[in-house]
Amino acid sequence: MAAVNRFFGDVYPQHPDDNTVKEVRLQAAGMSYPGYGDRHVLLEWTNRVDDKGQIVTQILQLTGQSGNYSYYAPVAKYRSASSRERNAFYSLGSFTRVQRDQILMLAKSVQFSKSSTTNGCRVWTRDLLEAMVEAKLISVAKFKEFDEGVPLVKRVAEAEESSNE
Questions:
Q1: What span, in angstroms and rounded, lies between the C-alpha atoms of 147 and 90?
Q2: pLDDT above 70: residue 165
Q3: Distance CA 113, CA 164 (A)
Q4: Would you call 27 helix, strand, or coil by DSSP?
Q5: Cβ atoms within 10 Å of 109's Cβ, excluding its own
Q6: What's the pTM?
Q7: pLDDT digit string (tens) for 86-139?
Q8: Where exactly are the structural domains of the chain?
Q9: Alpha-carbon distance 137 to 56, whole Å?
Q10: How far is CA 51 from the centre of its chain?
């Protein structure tokens, strides 16, 4: 029996991924980073635009907050048009369903500490993008573009080691 997805507002069962080629994007909160504080990031692609013009995106992210992180997949959410205006987006390129499934598997394998107060979503996303470089899904040049634009954060030692295993 599959584990219950506890991601609030998930509409994946109603709007699952399909077999079309889709653009995968990195979303970073806000249009720019001031150089201090946190900045939420996630990967996304459009699962569909419904009959009312609402966009449904599948998202990959480390959810929660410092000291309480989780990873759920698959997850799809409705996205407002204003979300596109308020946040920065970087294209990773166009990916087949097989490649998107590979991205999901890589995301599932990214290690994180649920109770971390040190390594958050930008670290997790950096690790995922590095795994995508190793799997030849994105180029080193693309990774550097994201690393500089967001910016992504490098993993550092935890005060206390605990993992999601």
A1: 11
A2: no
A3: 6
A4: strand
A5: 10
A6: 0.88
A7: 999 999 999 999 999 999 999 999 988 888 888 889 989 999 999 999 999 999
A8: 22-149
A9: 23
A10: 26
